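G., before I forget:
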Amino acid sequence: MVVNPDYMDPKNLLDISKLYNKNDPKNIMLNSILQDKVFNLLSNKVSNSIFSSKFDPCKYRYSIASCKELDSFFYGVYFDSLVKNILSIKKYNIIYGLRKFQSSDFTLLHDSGSSDVDGIDFIMDLSKTSDRNGGYINYVNPKGELLHIVTKPNSLSFVKRDKGSLYYVKYINHKQFDPIILIFGTIVKS
Amino acid sequence: MLNEWINDDYLLDSYISKINRLYNNAKPFQHFVFLDFFNESKLKDLKKAVLKEKFERIDKDLFSFSQTKELLNSKNKFIKDFYKFLSSKEFIDFIHKVSGIKLDSNIDMHSHIFSDTDYLLFHDDVVESRGVAYVINLSEDFSSVDGGKLQLYDINNAFSPSKEIIPDFNSFVLFTVSKNSLHSIEEVKSKKKRITISGWFHGR
């Protein structure tokens, strides 16, 4: 099994779903989502991917890569089970992207560009270390900060994003030595 | 009033004309850096006064730093006197001669402290009536390795700064605010504090 068996237990999934729906905004972070061996393999694979820089001074600076192995997880039965049981969504489409953040990288609020539609974001952390010097994720709306997420390696977070809310990845400062590798995706009901 | 606050050398008409030419021809956008600009003794007193003000910590997507409220509202006599000087007709005329920008008597004035890891990302300062931006550097011991440099960019090639300005004590930086005035404050990378007074001369 790819996923930590705890997250396949129907009773646990029900409890997680209740917690997700109770939080405001609706969100949950699932720690140790993959089995350790699978996580290490995937983390190594992703780290060795060829990343290319994306930079717009008024929007973002980070690197992107593609990794085919990720498709088998996000379009597979385990992720589908999490979406159906925790988020209660039966039919959906997803889009996702792999991003690497290093010292001096950032995103600004303009970047997520999806404030005009509702959706459920997911963020998976494939970093090798938990050191975080910046790199946290803030969700905000015009009234202020909604949610502050500090991801951990091998975690998967779901966040219900209402129309008008945006997120940014905080500037990664000079004290960060290891890259922060995150997958950002969105689930949209179909 | 000008010669009470400013280094006399900068008040010669011939020198101001020369600075105006340098300002207009500066790359990547119109700016000038005055060194040893203010009366040093007064500036040190001003620094002491400013550091007694309350600084509020602010963390956003674009920046992390500590900032005072608008110093116009300060109750400190020394800061009030300095504000009065900076917004005086004589000084505004001086800024006009240097920049060529028509200005009124409205100014903004805040103080900022950038500590280790603080930064201000790319932006152009364009808001309503801002005409000329200014920065008065109050840190006394910054070198290149400490970070904290004011970085100016060519908007068509912002991968690396076209010019970097170390925040030397008693330097006074001016630049014209426009859609081309892309700049940032480099992250501070040491335990030193980057202390400034900055704001805008309004007009146009």
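The mean pLDDT of chain B is 96. The domain at 2-203 of chain B is CATH 2.60.120.620 (Jelly Rolls).

More on Monday.
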